[in-house]
Amino acid sequence: MTVRLPKRDIMRTPCDFLKLALTAVMMAVLGAMLSGCALRDFISLEPAAVTSDRAAFESAQAAFLAGNLSSARKTFGRLSAAASLPEIRRSARYGLACADMVQAEDTEGFQTAVESFLQVISDSVNDLGTGLGGDSEASKRSQKSFPKADPVLLARGLSRGMALTCQARKADRKKLSAGQAKEKKWKKERAKMQHLIDTLQHQITVLERIDQERQEKRRVQ
């Protein structure tokens, strides 16, 4: 096998060779820019759509932690349905479930949000197992760059659940207490009514006795 070396007149000096290399790099960059690609996109190995989705996810997490749940939930919902990577969609579903936990108005709503969260976990285990078993380099890169969801999101969701549970218990105790009070009052009223009935029966017995005595007196006369 014969290897042909460049002609001597192309590389007369190291300086000439360096100029040639710089010219090639500049032409490549210029060509990329003219084709509509920014320099950072030309250098970056990650598609712009993925970078945008990651930034949106981080922004949604920040909004969640700042208390802007409506904005966070809106972004999580969009990413969970249309993010470029399944990992981002899965993390967005995680955030969405946590937002639903925090916004739950009662224990039933919280339970529904928890079921959604558990489904996310189940799907994550299955998807990650499938991805790790493959040979695709893109899949491996995706696993390494999985956008970790802040555990504080879940902590706030669980805190809301504890608050709702306490409220439900207090309400149950109030109902029980109210029920016991009503039962006590009803027993008191029933006793009073029974006393009245007994009194009336006694009065009727007395009146019947008086009437009977009168009738006997009339017969004697």
Question: Would you summarize the structure shown here?
Answer:
With 221 residues, the protein is mainly α. Helices cover 81% and strands 0% of the residues. The protein has a domain at 44-172.
Topology of helices and strands:
Elements: H1 14-34, H2 39-43, H3 48-65, H4 69-82, H5 86-103, H6 107-132, H7 137-144, H8 151-220
Describe the overall structure.
This protein has 221 residues and is an all-alpha fold. It has a domain at 44-172. The chain has helices spanning 14-34, 39-43, 48-65, 69-82, 86-103, 107-132, 137-144, 151-220. Helix 3 (48-65) runs parallel beside helix 5 (86-103), helix 4 (69-82) packs antiparallel against helix 5 and helix 5 packs antiparallel against helix 6. The protein is rod-shaped and about 130 Å long. The termini are far apart.
From the structure provided, what is the oligomeric state, counting identical versus distinct chains? single chain
Rg calc: 41 Å
What are the low-pLDDT stretches, counting only 5+ consecutive residues below 50? 1-44, 131-135
The computed structural class is mainly alpha
- Average pLDDT works out at 71
Along the chain, the helix and strand elements come as HHHHHHHH
**Main sheet?**
none
**Helical content (DSSP H or I, runs of 4+):** over 70%
- The general outline is rod-shaped
Distance between the termini: 160 Å
Tally of individual helices: 8
Proportion of residues in extended strands = under 5%
Tell me the number of strands.
0
